[in-house]
Amino acid sequence: MVTRKRTAILISGRGSNMVALLDAAALEFYPAEIVLVLSNRPEAPGLATAASRNVPTRCIDSKKFGRDRAGHEAEILAQLDRLDVELICLAGWMRLLTPGFVRRYAGRILNVHPSLLPAFPGLFTHERALAEGVRIHGCTVHLVTEAMDQGPILAQAAVPVRPEDTPEILAARVLVQEHAIFPAALAAFAAGVAPRPASAALALCNPLPWLCAGP
């Protein structure tokens, strides 16, 4: 029998990467179980999507806490503790976690970032990639540390940058790869496989490699 890690997904918006994780977790041998989808925004479309799949959801509205980030995160941690959450996936979570939160789940928070880290940490990655004239762009799944977008890399996928690309066109092409490597990285991490960068070819051709061997 597969031991499934109890996993929470944190979102702030529509949650397209959340959907990719939910799809993977619905497979029989996937080693992570999604026990909660939590948002800091009550209007986040991803909450309704998760609820439609019978996944428990919770909203802890960050606006109600103002600048009290610690108070907001204390409420989140209480929810995670209540469900015995072992792993956290940030899938479009648009808030920086405080050092205290990160230390509480040190080595157990995964994030997907739309660039080939360490290039272009932070926001507006596609605009910056085009402005700098890079020929290869992509996405990264990494562990979250106290330093933004600097944690150990678990998986990466690359896409070519084309002359006709706009930030929106490039973002859409990168997002396809995010949907492939995030579930694969979570599966490998939850199963205890040593982290190692994944090539775009691996992510595309075999995004669910843990299914090949069965239970």
Which CATH class? Answer: Alpha Beta
Radius of gyration: 17 Å
Distance between the termini: 6 Å
Q: How are strands sequenced across the largest beta sheet?
A: 3-2-1-4-5-6-7
Structural class: alpha/beta
Number of helices: 7
**What's the SSE pattern?**
EHEHEHEHEHEEHH
Average pLDDT score: 91
Profile the largest sheet. 7 strands, mixed
Low-pLDDT stretches are 197-215
Please state the overall shape, judged from the principal axes of the Cα atoms: globular
The name of the CATH architecture is: 3-Layer(aba) Sandwich
- Portion in beta strands: 15-25%
Q: Can you identify the CATH superfamily?
A: Formyl transferase, N-terminal domain
> How many β-strands, per DSSP?
7
Could you estimate the helical fraction of the residues in percent?
Answer: 25-40%
Within the CATH hierarchy, at the fold level, what is the topology? Answer: Rossmann fold
- The number of domains: 1
